[in-house]
Amino acid sequence: MAAIPVQENNGVFLAGVSLNFDSIKYPVQMEAMRLAASGGILVLGLMFLVGLIAFVHRKTEKAERELAVLREKNMALEEISRKTQSLARHQRLETIGTMASSIAHEFNNLLNPIMGYSILVLEKLPAEEEELYDNVLEIYEASRKAKTIVSRLSDLSRKNSPSAFQRIAPDPLLRKVLDICAPAKPLNVEQECSFGCKDAAISGNEVQLSQMLLNLILNAYQAMEKEGGTLRLSTREEEENIWFLVADTGPGMPETLIEKIFEPFFTTKERGKGTGLGLAIVRQVLQEHGGEIEVETREGEGTTMKVRLPKVPPGQTEEEKRTPDPQKS
Fold first, then answer.
1. Cys-Cys crosslink for 246: which of 54, 56, 107, 305, Cβ 3.0 to 4.6 Å?
2. How confident is the model at residue 299 (pLDDT cuts 50, 70, 90)?
3. Is pLDDT of 77 > 80?
4. Exposure class string for 28-46: b at 16+ Cβ within 10 A, else e
């Protein structure tokens, strides 16, 4: 180290220091090595992070693919379950139809002699036996009504044949059914009707379609029997379909019961007020006529039944309707 005075500079000195170059170079090299090591570690960390992200991404994609496969299998299992339930429902309905047909046949065998012998007794009674005549006549009339009911049961238990189908106007059909069920309408129930199918027609068995609408209307009456309400009935024409709407303001039902209400013998009514066959017959009739039914309901907000049936184009005969178009085959 040296200090050299400077001339004519008010006593200012120049100072100089001599150091070994290695003493300066070594710390700089060490610092550079530390920076390089830190940079390398940082790069390795980034590479590891990128690899980890790629690994997680591949795992996620694999999990999503497996989840998609599981969803497809689950959907397939649900479809199999739905088809199994549908098959079981059809089998139950077929069993019920067979049983109903057998019962109707047996009842007919019993009613025919009752009616026949009643007529024979009426013909042989003397004129002065008015009271006895009236009693036997009551037996005959009750037997005749029972035979009519059995005949309807027999009609519902067998499938429609092509000859049983005919062109039917929706509006007159609904009016006719309303006339039939008018005596069953509760006094505290109001009725609103709207007819929108003036010139339209459907193809079907009038007896079974009448029975279908009758069941829906009577169900609505019974739903509003205690609290009263309003029954709204309407028909409307929409493209190639005819819609019948039966809407009540009754208590409604939980949405979880919508599928169950069409099962045979399932009913939400009190004991003695329902057999559980009404809506099962409705679904069976619609299946045989190529129609569908939609149910909209909420607890406390009433129930709406929407029935869809295919419309018969103007001028088309029933035979043409049932003959497939070869160009569409």
1. 305
2. confident
3. yes
4. eeeeeeeeeeeeeeeeeee
